[in-house]
Amino acid sequence: MNRKKPIWVSCLQYALLITVALFMIFPIFWIFSNSLRTLPGISHFPPRLLPEELMFENYVEVLRGSNALIYFRNTMILIVANTVGTLISSSFVAYPLARMNFKGRNFVFALIIATMMVPAVTTIIPQFIIFRTLGWLDSLWPMIVPGFFAFPYNVFLFRQFFMTIPKELDEAAKMDGCNKLQVFTVMIVPLAKPIFITVTVLSSIWWWNELFLPLIYVQSHHLRPLTTGALAGFRVPGSPHMIQWNLQMAMATLMIIPPMILYLVASKHLVQGIKATGLKD
User: What is the pLDDT of residues 136-154, one digit of tens each?
Assistant: First the structure.
């Protein structure tokens, strides 16, 4: 028989949760608060929690006075290309590892997972040399083409989810005349919608926030994504070394909104996809 927890224990738990929630929310609140200030208001000391005057004009200035739409277009190109690439390549790699029996299957899977232990920064110099030889520097290709080569973490997610699907369905599809490719496209893919949505969300948010690779490969302003373009393009007129922090905070606030909406829309499938990956070894 379960004993009811004392009231003070529940109060302590809620107090702790509220404290942690406020601690996590405060940076977002501070960004939003600074986005509504004047430039002198940001540098006021001691800092004020709320702005004295609400400058919603900052958001109009951000969209009107910058190349935000061009940067947004470049970001969407990276998101769509890499998401499509990783969905195709990672699912195709994971399918035989989960549904087919062949010698060395577990070794291949272990080798793929082992590559996750290699820090990504250690491969930047070799990749940079390759892309320079191909003449791809200062373009989006160095950030698009690798997306069509399976990403180890996504392979892991797909493989674990595919293993939760009963193999009797494969046999039934083969009896109906389907080959292995048709079994995958007609039978497995529709049943694996949660994990496809999960990988789509994870990939989209990753490339929406990606900063390091654009700094390495892109120099032209018209090719920059939002992270390197809009967030680094607000300078004080006549003082190129001074940043208009209020406008930069307004742009950062706008950039927070799409990932939040994407997560809220896909949260149900996201939870299902992540939960199902741990059901089978």
Answer: 999 999 999 999 998 999 9
CA-to-CA separations, 20 to 10, 25, 26, 31, 263, in angstroms, rounded: 15, 9, 10, 18, 21
- Please, what are the domains in the chain? 7-60 (no CATH), 65-276 (1.10.3720.10)
pTM: 0.85
Question: Vertex 177, ends 172 and 166: CA angle to 5°?
Answer: 25
Confidence of residue 121 (pLDDT cuts 50, 70, 90): confident
DSSP assignment of 79-109, as one string? Answer: HHHHHHHHHHHHHHHHHHHHH---TTHHHHH
pLDDT digits (tens, 9 = 90+) for 64-98: 877 888 999 999 999 999 999 999 999 999 999 99
CA atoms within 13 A on the CB side of 250: 27
* 178-184, Cβ contacts within 8 angstroms, sequence gap of 24 or more: 180/100, 183/99, 184/91, 184/92, 184/95, 184/99
